[in-house]
Amino acid sequence: MTAAATSGQADRDVTPNTVHIRTPKRRPVVLATLTPVTVPPISPTAESRSEKKERTRRAILDAALRLTEDTGLAGLSLRQVAKEVGIVPTAFYRHFDSIDQLGLALVEESFGSLRAMIRDVRQGTPSLGQIVDSSVSVLVDHVRDQHAHFGFIARERSGGSKVVRDAVRREFQLFERELATDLARLPMDHWSADDLRILSNLIVSAMITTSEEILRADPRDLPDIQHRARTQLLMVIVGALNWKSNASG
Amino acid sequence: MTAAATSGQADRDVTPNTVHIRTPKRRPVVLATLTPVTVPPISPTAESRSEKKERTRRAILDAALRLTEDTGLAGLSLRQVAKEVGIVPTAFYRHFDSIDQLGLALVEESFGSLRAMIRDVRQGTPSLGQIVDSSVSVLVDHVRDQHAHFGFIARERSGGSKVVRDAVRREFQLFERELATDLARLPMDHWSADDLRILSNLIVSAMITTSEEILRADPRDLPDIQHRARTQLLMVIVGALNWKSNASG
DNA sequence: CCTTTCAGTGAACGTGCGTACACTGAAACT
DNA sequence: AGTTTCAGTGTACGCACGTTCACTGAAAGG
Fold first, then answer.
1. Do B149 and B65 touch, CB atoms closer than 8 A?
2. Is the CB of B43 under 7 A from strand D?
3. CA A228 → CA A121, A129, B169, B183, B196, distances in Å?
4. Is the shortest CB-to-strand distance from A11 to strand C under 7 Å?
5. How far apart are CA B99 and CA B162, in angstroms?
6. What is the pTM of this model?
7. Among all residues of chain B, which has the CA nearest to that of A210?
8. Each residue of B132-184: pLDDT tens digit?
9. CB contact under 8 A, A158 and B157
10. Confidence grade of residue A98 (pLDDT, cut at 50, 70, 90)
11. Are B158 and A160 inside 8 Å of each other by CB?
């Protein structure tokens, strides 16, 4: 895909062929502003300057997310993004200082998705078996649903830019720590903080690999993957319980 | 038409400043060739044409391995590699059709390192606890030792080029399958092939994450990582044993 | 000895890249 | 109403890239 007919000439960069977000010719219909100043004219049709800027910013983020799917952030160029969004290359700088900064914004956003997933898992935590089941199915659903974000994380985790890579790493460590405190609430008698971290690190590892598999899997293989993830999670938990009681009674 | 030299100097690419591998002025001293033909003149100083080609090939592979450390294969250019090796860009094509082909060669080579590691682990397999200990310490040693290869795998596993990514994936699947047959030899009573695959998949996941951590870790954190890996591996194995006997005794 | 092979050369090409700079025109502010 | 702000424009630059092509000169081989 993404052919876009690169016509020769010189440095043209013409024909955005995607949505142009220039001002619509519609005039803003201000209803009845008794208060004369400082109140932004709220109206259904018009768009304030900052709203429009925000909209362009979003468009850039979305375009980047789409384009990195093929090449990774390393192979993403400012000009590509600009063309996809329908702005001139230099206008990019109105929103981000560099591609790296764009990457950091995407890291933040992507881990937002991940945190939303965790919130779903936390909703009521009955038996241990049910936790495992619901965790895995929530994981599968979210990864499919937010595949752009999860794919981005998977790619940039070991990707080209050091700043972005480090940002992803930091987020995962944070996440691992949160999981450890969650695990502490389960009935595991008197685990040390260290051991909890080790366990949650293992679980996060398995979760990452599972996510990567879900991302590239054919939809009809999903039940298999789900079954596997469920089994693995059980193995780990059961193992943790038994190992602990065996090793240090 | 349209010559239009962009600017004075234009396309220079001069000063390789690294080792030039042009022929040394030394003449090959052929000792006493009674057999007149087809036997390559073996002599300590001279280098046959194919030997020299092989040497350049190696230099290219090494240069690529070094350069991808910063940018990943995606950010690696033919010209960079050529400059690093000390040849002209076009000479690259004498050895590889494209950067992708170079990538595939590196995948093969890197998994060679991994297989060598496995061979080390297999050397005598006493008790289960010892297997875990030696496996982990061998892993840590090999990853530090062959960090270029392991780093390459880690990076390109989710990296830019689809061909390379798929090649890495295939190698890991192969590896996972081998581990499953290895596990079958351990005293785990009557596991199904499916369950063995699930278990080995989990172990490989943990191993990958551990390797990635070793790669970027400060050397003085290695004992911690080793301890963690050891604990995790034990958790998984103990868990697998107990889970199996519990679930489908 | 003469011919063929082929790793490496060197100039040239067209392209896409990041970035600088001066600009425009509508929204926002006073 | 007059001024300032600022998202987006358009041109131009120098640079690195992949790839082409005709070449060179030493090794290989008859």
1. yes
2. no
3. 19, 15, 18, 17, 11
4. yes
5. 12
6. 0.80
7. B205
8. 898 999 999 999 999 999 999 999 998 878 899 999 999 999 989 988 988 88
9. yes
10. very high
11. no
